[in-house]
Amino acid sequence: MHTMILSAAALIASAAALPSQAQHPARNPADDVVVVFYADLDLTRPDQARILDHRLNVAARRVCDDARLVISHYRLRHLCVREALADARGQIGSARLSKTAQIAPLSAIVRRAS
Fold it and tell me: Which residues does UniProt assign to the signal peptide (predicted)?
């Protein structure tokens, strides 16, 4: 019995000593960026602006999602989503205010904050 307890303790200790990268796969940098297109939307219409907002929210949650995070890291994910949305909305606002709207991009890049 004593040997079994020591073996279990050794197993737990060795698992805890593994580097975190060995426990969790590395993030693919491509997962940190999503391009959201809105050329099909008329952003002067509130219903169409809501559609874009929904697309941005989905993209921000996707780039900020990390299966490795535990419940206690919810605040970090929330901050990531908020920063990604602010950046994307800033891109869209700049494009809409551009005097050269004909060549303004009709997409926004939603990215994980670094």
Answer: 1-22
